[in-house]
Amino acid sequence: MTSLGGLFVQLQRYDMLMIPDSYVRRSSSTIPFGYRISNVEGYLEPIEEELKILKEVSESVYSGEISLGVGVDWLEAETGRSISRVGLKKHVDKVYGRLGKKS
Question: 86-90, long-range: CB within 8 Å, 24+ apart, which pairs?
């Protein structure tokens, strides 16, 4: 006979097998750019096209080819979703390192 705790662990393992690898766990009420709420409770589904454009824009901002304002406008024109300059800067800083602190 399986204990209730053991059954819960088995259900969690089964549930983990049903979650696609590309999904990320939702950690706040804000949905990050490039993701949407998935059918799997507590997880976000990536939007590959938006993530591809975000990467291209972020690299251009980081390299100094375009400003944050141009990057924000580019993302909105290509995806129809908005992101603030501060939001884009935070993303670039997190992924590529702080803007203005290149060594």
Answer: 87/33, 88/57, 88/58, 88/61, 89/61
What residues does each domain of the chain span?
20-96
User: How much of the chain, in percent, has pLDDT values that exceed 70?
Assistant: 80
Token output for 88: 């884009």
pLDDT above 80 for 14: no
Angle formed by the axes of helices 48-63 and 85-96, to 10°?
Answer: 80
Phi, psi of 46 (to 5 degrees): -70, 145
Query: How far is it, in rounded angstroms, from Cα 38 to Cα 17?
Result: 15
Q: What integer pLDDT is reported at residue 1 of this predicted model? A: 52
